[in-house]
Specification:
By secondary structure, this protein is of the alpha+beta class. It has two domains: 65 residues; 77 residues, 3-Layer(aba) Sandwich (Glutaredoxin). The chain is built from seven helices and six strands; from the N terminus they run ββααααβααβββα. It is elongated. The two termini are 25 Å apart. The chain binds FE2/S2 (inorganic) cluster (FES). FE2/S2 (inorganic) cluster binds next to helix 5.
Length: 158
């Protein structure tokens, strides 16, 4: 999975997935999902490699990546803080959590801290509305989060 001097290595699983989907319609989105699953974003070198493997123009790949907000072109922080902005969380102050996190981390939503540790992302309903407002960091779900808890939550990841 190394990204160095313009070359990139895909895992055997990713390579075989791409080969399996190569001839199927709608393959580009499936393949880009898998690439993002492997790297956490779509590195430029990966987009190049996918273009070669699927024999599609690079411009088409970037067209898809930029059309679907799901795809990321920048590497997220080591801890990507996903703030749920679905209806239930929004009504319980999800966007205030974004404001507070931006202040605490000194970055805006969709940015990464200089040390690469944290990024903030707004996401749709993550399926635990009873715990609104919700943050997801890695595999951990933080429910009923208040602004006052945020410094402690951030500190627990440093
Ligand atoms: S709206 Fe946030 S978990 Fe459903």
């Amino acid at each position: 999975m190394a990204v160095a001097d313009g070359t990139i290595t895909f895992s055997p699983a990713l390579n075989s997935f791409i080969n399996e989907w190569k001839e199927k319609p709608g393959n580009l989105i499936m393949v880009l999902h898998k690439v993002q699953e492997e790297f956490g974003y779509i590195p430029r070198e990966a987009a190049d490699k996918v273009a070669g493997m699927l024999e599609v123009p690079l411009a088409k790949i970037y067209g898809v990546i930029t059309f679907y907000h799901f795809f990321k072109l920048e590497k997220p922080g080591k801890y990507n803080i996903q703030v749920c902005l679905g209806t239930a969380c929004y009504l319980k102050g999800g966007s205030n959590l974004v404001d507070e996190l931006e202040g605490l981390l000194g970055i805006s939503i969709n940015e990464v801290t200089k040390d690469g540790k944290f990024s903030i992302e707004g996401v749709r309903c993550v399926g635990c509305c009873g715990l609104a407002p919700v943050l997801v960091i890695g595999e951990e779900v933080h429910g009923k989060v208040t602004k006052d808890q945020l410094p402690g939550i951030i500190a627990s990841y440093t």
